[in-house]
Amino acid sequence: MEYQRMEYQRKDIDNNTLLNLYKRMLKPRMIEEKMLILLRQGKISKWFSGIGQEAISVGVTSAMTAEEYILPMHRNLGVFTTREIPLHRLFSQWQGKAGGFTKGRDRSFHFGTQEYKIVGMISHLGPQLGVADGIALADVLQNRERITAVFTGEGGTSEGDFHEALNIASVWQLPVLFCIENNGYGLSTPTSEQYNCENLADRGIGYGMESYTIDGNNILDVYSKVGELGQRMRKKPGPVLLEFKTFRMRGHEEASGTKYVPDALMEEWGTMDPIANYESFLKEEGLLDNIKIDLQKAEIESEINEHLQFAFGEHEVDFVESDELSDVYKAFAYTEARSNNAGEKIRLVDAVSQGLRQSMEQHDNLVIMGQDIAGYGGVFKVTEGFVDAFGTSRVRNTPICESGIVAAAMGLSINGMKAVVEMQFADFASSGFNPIVNYLAKSHYRWGEKADVVIRMPCGGDVGAGPFHSQTNEAWFTKTPGLKVAYPAFPFDAKGLLATAINDPNPVLFFEHKGLYRSVYQEVPTGYYTLPFGKAALLKEGHEITIVSYGAGVHWALEILGNHPEIKADLIDLRTLMPLDMTSIYTSIEKTGKLIILQEDSLFGGISSDISALVMENRFEYLDGPIKRVGSLEMPIPFSKRLENGYLPKERFVVALKELLAY
Ligand SMILES: Cc1ncc(C[n+]2csc(CCOP(=O)(O)OP(=O)(O)O)c2C)c(N)n1
Q1: How far apart are CA 127 and CA 142, in angstroms?
Q2: Residue 66 needs a FRET pair 20 to 30 A away by CA distance; which of 135, 301, 492, 650 works?
Q3: Residue nearest atom 7 in ligand 1 by C-alpha distance
Q4: Which of ligand 1's atoms lies nearest the C-alpha of 159?
């Protein structure tokens, strides 16, 4: 085929580098050609092709230093090969074998590796853009002169995550290279149905950032531009948006074909193949001839074959339940810290604030992020005065973008820091739900990467705040393996559990009941201390019945028991919901034979249902009556006081308690 001659400008690039760039593009191309054969033979399951887009992956990666993070997508094999990952590891990864990067737990390019400073995508595409922000922020805070590059297709730019990540990077002036690979189609959707502006790079103006449109098939344009930008961004941090124009020469994945792509377009882009054109250029420069090309190809081919044999020889991963379960969380050895200081009587909100402040003193790599948390001190004033103590680098006001900030917290963790994110109200975690349940929760299981992030969740009703400022949404998270969930009811617990949550490298959702913030007082040691997760507290002892609750429910139960001294009950405050202390519940049931569980949230699908099921399965023979669950009604939480009282379970609880006692 005749190749359209592309304009190559070698500038001051030496011959060695010119040839290296060629070899680096050839390698992913040849691997892909091999994979297409294996796919037809049924030896691999799926393939997302980057054929025709190699110049972007190779050009960007070659212009970066080995310690700088890259966050690639599903068509960026050239990133992995340019970072010189041994091919057999990639082959094992694609075959789901143990020698890959995920022990068979995730497919294709869905993995990261700290060793090669690559953080792979999750399927949801967009969240990794915010992760790049966090990685870059960690570099800036630790005065490392580095850039971070993150990739997205043009389809992915339609996600809100794209907007959030670019906006954050610009507001915070983070050294992130946002690389859009505009390859014409997102699955079958052409660009005309994806966005309505001429160039995606033009969006840079709206975000207040520099941006460029680059011929993504021209390796020297890519390499030179990224090299030049990188040099500047390392010295003077700030984001840049790059739109690489290219084309997807094969189907979205191999099975889906390209019927919907006009032939003329395929032909036109076929003449702009990044490797064939570059080959012609190197021949003209006198650096390459057919003999050298054949030699180069033979060398790569034998490397591919040798590594393929190795990967094919590896065993399939066996299912060992304990191995799978033990990798869901990073191992964390709880160490107890005690405070011998005399206590002072403080409110729950003060205890959270104190705990957070003392953790900031303990960990100088801890960063807090949230809306209005800096000078203003947060809407509940938990971080009041923190800026004076720790500065605005570590106590960061954020734009209103929960998803982007949760993703950025993950990026901080990947790059060696700790993060606490304050949701202004727990209700708004829905806007950051995707990265919490898909990114934070699954990273350790997928590729062994911790998510050292605590998300503070001011939650709860009985405050007359209506459907969007009163929810207690812990059940959204207790359902998701990989997350821990704390829900203290008292100042002493809140302070100690928060310190532990921050020490723990796993993601923790930390629920703080707004109704308790300023109504519950307790004597709390003034110094730093920790409390263990998974240990419930037995607040009252009695032989007639076991009451299990957490959060505000504990106080409702205490009030009712206070009004009814004739009821002899064990009252268990769970304190953390994941891990859940079933042992304390079982011990109590063995004594009382009756169980009632009180939760503030609407009943269906909540933790009380699981506690009930577990007791039925494991302590049925001790029960002297049916287990009772009491929760709010199956409806959104209403605003006006009478409606809210009707919704909440407090009054139904007394009735159910008496019924069960009389059973
Ligand atoms: C949130 C989400 N929605 C939909 C999909 C399904 N999906 C996977 S890739 C893709 C197309 C992506 O297009 P683009 O970002 O342009 O990248 P390209 O595949 O063209 O490289 C779609 C729709 C997904 N993975 N995640």
Answers
A1: 23
A2: 301
A3: 187
A4: 1
What pLDDT does residue 44 have? 82
pLDDT score at 473:
98
Catalytic residue among 74, 163, 444, 469: 469
CB-side neighbour CA atoms (13 Å) of 79: 28
Residue 4 has pLDDT above 70, yes or no: no
Mean pLDDT calculated for residue range 574-581: 98
The yes-or-no answer on residue 252 being catalytic is no
Which residue's CA lies nearest to atom 24 of ligand 1?
124
Query: Which residue type sits at 35?
Result: M
CB 138 within 8 A of CB 415: yes
pLDDT tens string 349-389: 999 999 999 999 999 999 999 999 999 999 999 999 999 99
CA distance 328 to 322: 10
> Does residue 560 contact residue 466 with C-beta atoms inside 8 Å?
no
Helices (H), 187-285: 203-207, 219-235, 263-270, 274-284
Rounded Cα distance between 369 and 168, Å, is: 12
Instruction: Tell whether the model's pLDDT for residue 461 goes beyond 70.
Output: yes
Interval 176-209: pLDDT, tens: 999 999 999 999 999 999 999 999 999 999 999 9
Q: How many angstroms separate the first and last alpha carbons of the chain?
A: 87
Query: Measuring from each residue's beta carbon to the nearest atom of ligand 1, which residues come in under 6 Å?
Result: 75, 123-125, 153-156, 181, 183, 185-187, 248, 252
Could you tell me the CA-to-CA distances from 167 to 173, 205, 398, 531 in Å, in that order? 10, 11, 10, 38
CB 59 within 8 A of CB 223: yes
414 backbone dihedrals φ, ψ, rounded to 5°? -60, -35
pLDDT of residue 630 exceeding 80: yes
pTM: 0.98
CA of 435 to the centre of ligand 1 (A): 16
**Amino acid code (one letter) for 489:** A
Per-residue burial over 434-449, b = 16 or more CB atoms within 10 Å of its CB, e = otherwise: bbbbbbbbbbbbbbbb
Contacts of residue 661, Cβ cutoff 8 Å, sequence gap at least 6 = 544, 545, 567, 594
Distance 77 CA to ligand 1 centre (A): 17
Q: Which atom of ligand 1 is nearest to the CA of 248?
A: 20
Give the residues across from 524 on adjacent strands: 344
Nearest atom of ligand 1 to the alpha carbon of 153: 15
C-alpha distances in angstroms, 199 versus 56, 213, 579?
17, 8, 49
Q: Residue 254 C-alpha to ligand 1 middle, in angstroms?
A: 14
Contact status, residue 173 vs residue 233, Cβ threshold 8 Å: no
pLDDT band at 97 (very low <50, low <70, confident <90, very high): very high
CA angle, 509 then 512 then 516, to 5°:
165
